[in-house]
Sequence to fold (225 residues):
Amino acid sequence: QQPVQSPQAVILREGEDAVINCSSSKALYSVHWYRQKHGEAPVFLMILLKGGEQKGHEKISASFNEKKQQSSLYLTASQLSYSGTYFCALISGSARQLTFGSGTQLTVLP
Amino acid sequence: DSGVTQTPKHLITATGQRVTLRCSPRSGDLSVYWYQQSLDQGLQFLIHYYNGEERAKGNILERFSAQQFPDLHSELNLSSLELGDSALYFCASSATTGQGANGYTFGSGTRLTVV
Fold:
């Protein structure tokens, strides 16, 4: 089951904040977040495990809400380098492979 | 350099042909995953190998096949190519199966263009 991401796209100015949401119709046990710049490979940002843990990576952090079956990625004081497509991914399937969401395209303007 | 090596980086071939994409996982990683990313699309899971054994198949066409060799490198074979097969093909590796704490490490991908 593919996770649903929102919004599909967001444009902001350098220094502004953004939130990207990821929701699942099934119970969440862990959520991965990746960032992909155009034409490049996705890069792992962080993983959140069951338990409501919030993790951070520079000025990028995320939360995990088991009850709502949702994770949110927070980008604060955005920088130009944050531009790219952000994917959340969930473990699913018998071999527990990652199923990626459709992505949120983030554009940071100067 | 992520440590995952994919070759070739670009491939242009005609419809009906067969190609082989190669992936060397990061040192120590036993799992290899193949994903397809079409233009402006998300990452579609194709197949997963762990230590030489096939563990899961996703939306992989019958024209596509893969294997993982004893040295852990993997190859994705695409045959009877169609225009719609044009895409970026990524290989990713992880130390174990499933929810590794360090996520997946992706290679730089092979861009396949079918003309």
